[in-house]
Amino acid sequence: MIAAAVLTALALACAVGAWRLTFARWPWRTPRAAILLWQSLGVTWGLASVGALLAYALAPYGGGVVFGLHAYADSALSSGMGHGLVLPHDLPRVAAMIAGLALLGVLVSVLLAAGAQTLLARRRHRVLLSLISREDPGVPGVRVLDHPGATAYCLPGLRSEVVVSAGTLSLLSQDELSAVLAHEAAHARERHDLVLLPFTALTRALPWLSVVRDAHSSVALLVEMAADDRARRYCSARRLATALLRFGTAGTVPTPSGALGAGGEQVMARVNRLVKPGAALPRRFRYGLVTFSMLLSVSAPFLWLYPG
Questions:
Q1: Burial 104-126, CB ≥16 within 10 A → b, else e
Q2: Cβ-contact 227, 187 below 8 angstroms
Q3: Selection from 178, 193, 249 nearest residue 226 by Cα
Q4: What digits encode the pLDDT tens for the residues 195-234?
């Protein structure tokens, strides 16, 4: 019962931590470390929630969740109602077992479904791009759409592609265009689509929870800020801010499903951060945050093995 209580407390702590993190502004000063923290909170919450239910259901076996599941399966297969098997009339434990396995199934299935839908959307869009896009000598390695609206996005994958519209080429100066392309290249290089995928899946699984929607929005903004920081290594921050403002005033075309665009929501927050960057967080704080995130990520799997 100790493992069940600790896992329950851990799941609640992760939920509260995620809720408070949605209101914090210090993550803007270190988006990569904050993204890692968000990922560890999400993974730990899921494993702790499932583990708490299973630990309570399998407490008669002892040995922890993993051992309990193994013992339960062996007992069910060998005798159906062997010694130590969770009895049908023990309704709270049976309900916890069903709820835990159902929650695990939902979390895994929505993650796989979100991944499959994203891959399918990208495959369809790649086919469409091969038909309607063209290459331009002025922007080598970039696909150009003959559309008057302003758009620029990255289609990630094993063969990532950066796409811009003709409207973008006429809207931005050469320096601004270089800044936007550097931003999109950062999305492709760092595979920010994989960062967002679990939060997208969680939003589909629990759409009624505001903390889940806020978490997705917060991580999406941090991903854009991380790409902005990477782009600043190759271009002026002011040029990138100007390009974002031009996108905002021009009325950008919506980014296709499965892609990562240069514009999006909360553009002004990104612009203000680029124009007036805050002081960098101390290195020891960033390293401490990374260490804490890694320890948090392994806490729930460890408690699955805890025999209490």
A1: bebbeebbeebbeebeeebeebb
A2: yes
A3: 193
A4: 888 998 888 888 888 888 899 999 999 999 999 988 888 8
Give the pLDDT confidence score for residue 308 in this predicted structure.
63
Q: Compute the distance between CA of residue 14 and CA of residue 127 in angstroms, rounded to an integer.
A: 41
For the chain, the residue count is 308
What is the C-alpha separation between 213 and 228, in angstroms, rounded? 23
- DSSP strands (E only) in the chain: 133-135, 142-145, 152-155, 161-165, 260-261
3-state DSSP helix/strand/coil percent for the chain, to nearest 5? 70, 5, 25
CA atoms within 13 A on the CB side of 194: 7
Residue type, 306: Y
The two beta strands, 161-165 and 142-145, are parallel
All residue ranges of the chain with pLDDT < 70 are 1, 76-89, 250-253, 262-265, 308
DSSP 8-state class, residue 30: S
